[in-house]
Amino acid sequence: EVNFPRAVSSVEQAAVEVSDPKLHKAWVYRAYGAAKDVLQLEEIGVPEIAADQVLVKVRAASLNPVDFKRRLGKFKASDSQLPHVPGYDVAGVVVKVGSQVSGLKEGDEVYGDISEFALENPKQWGSIAQYTAVEEKLLAVKPKNLSFAEAASLPLAILTAQEGLDRTSFMEGQSILVLGGAGGVGTLVIQLAKQVYGASLVAATASTGKLDFVKSLGADIVIDYTKQNFEELPEKYDVVYDTVGEGPKNVKPVKQGGSVVALTGAVTPPAFRFVVTSNGASLAKLNPFLESGKVRPILDPKGPFSFSQVVEAFSYLETGRALGKIVIAPI
Ligand code: NDP
User: For residue 221, what is the DSSP state?
Assistant: First the structure.
């Protein structure tokens, strides 16, 4: 029987070959700065695992704005020490378990956001690497119907979408306006609000070319922000979920007594901001909705980017124009 290997380009091959099994390939930065200036593919030691951690053979990772903001030194005061391997989101296979790990075993296919607190001492050795060490409690079993690339696109963004909706006490029958409906978080807020929380009405902003796509995610009303100012429209909503940073305008469309959550930018009462907490159990709660196809991962059509194209992938993310998530795969 002939065993056909998967076709791998020579660039990809060079990106993954290592000279010593204690070493792995990882993207590393040793100083804060622009991706093209500071990010390098290096051969470094495979991370050690603590008793409550597992070692994950990374199959796919995704990028989040926090990765580049952190790399630019915006969170220096509470950051882990340099050098860093960037990357919060991972999907991969458990290859080793710590002595206190009870719910996962070698061979399990998992996904998660590997840093419990996004800004407080996030992982020094992130997910844009061949291996990463993760606390068992931050991981969930990968939904079987999703590829590693699809699963890797979800954790930080979907946990943010979920935590923001929970913090506004969003309930069945309520209405919501999502500012930034086409982004990594916005595409998931729309879907969760509609499919998981039972929103009566979902409105979302996007630029002209993305309106149809945002509608296909379940938005009932789309507002082209290049043509209309959302804050001047007459409709009022129970919740405004701002992923763009539109404060103080983001409080204009909320009903009296409603909630406004702003992930970034100025915070004017009644708006509030929070920083996502990663948690495998919260992710696992969403697995049935992912497995039934009610909620689907949205991968930017320009990707996935290969493991050798991480600098290009960051440059694209940093344009602020991505549709859904930017994924690095295969790793
Ligand atoms: P993305 O990079 O995925 O967002 C890009 C999208 O934003 C594009 O599709 C773009 O669409 C859209 N967009 C840009 N400007 C506007 C605008 N004025 N109105 C409507 N849409 C717009 O980012 P994420 O969704 O991953 O993150 C969003 C923000 O939230 C970031 O600042 C991130 O750091 C922050 N964040 C904070 C978290 C927290 O815990 N506090 C957690 C996660 C994210 P178009 O091309 O049509 O403009």
Answer: E
Q: What is the token pair recorded at 190? A: 């729309």
Rounded to whole angstroms, what are the CA distances from 31 to 35, 38, 46, 249, 324?
10, 6, 21, 36, 29
Report d(CA 248, CA 250) in Å as an integer: 5
Given a contact cutoff of 8 angstroms between Cβ atoms, the answer to whether 169 and 259 are in contact is yes
pLDDT in tens, 278-314: 999 999 999 999 999 999 999 999 999 999 999 999 9
324 contact partners, CB below 8 Å, separation of at least 6: 153, 182, 183, 184, 187, 297, 298, 299, 300
Residue 113 and residue 284: Cα distance in Å, rounded? Answer: 12
pLDDT band at 3 (very low <50, low <70, confident <90, very high): very low
225 lines ligand 1 (CB under 6 A): yes
Q: What is the DSSP string of 82-121?
A: SSBB--SEEEEEEEEE-TT--S--TT-EEEEES-SBSSSS
**How far apart are the CA of 264 and the centre of ligand 1, in A?**
9
Bond from prior residue into 304 cis (ω within 30 degrees of 0): yes
What is the atom index within ligand 1 of the atom nearest the CA of 180? 21
Which of ligand 1's atoms lies nearest the C-alpha of 207?
47
Structure tokens of 53? 């951690």
Q: How far is the CA of 209 from the centre of ligand 1 (A)?
A: 16
Structure-block tokens of residue 274: 């929070």
Count the neighbouring beta carbons within 10 Å of the beta carbon of residue 30. Answer: 12
Q: Peptide bond preceding 330: is omega within 30 degrees of 0, i.e. cis?
A: yes
Closest protein CA for atom 2 of ligand 1: 320
Cβ of 160 less than 6 Å from ligand 1: yes
CB of residue 207 inside a 6 A radius of ligand 1: yes
The complex's ipTM works out to 0.99
Reported as a single tens digit per residue, the pLDDT across 29-55 is 999 999 999 999 999 999 999 999 999
Q: Which atom of ligand 1 is nearest to the CA of 64?
A: 26
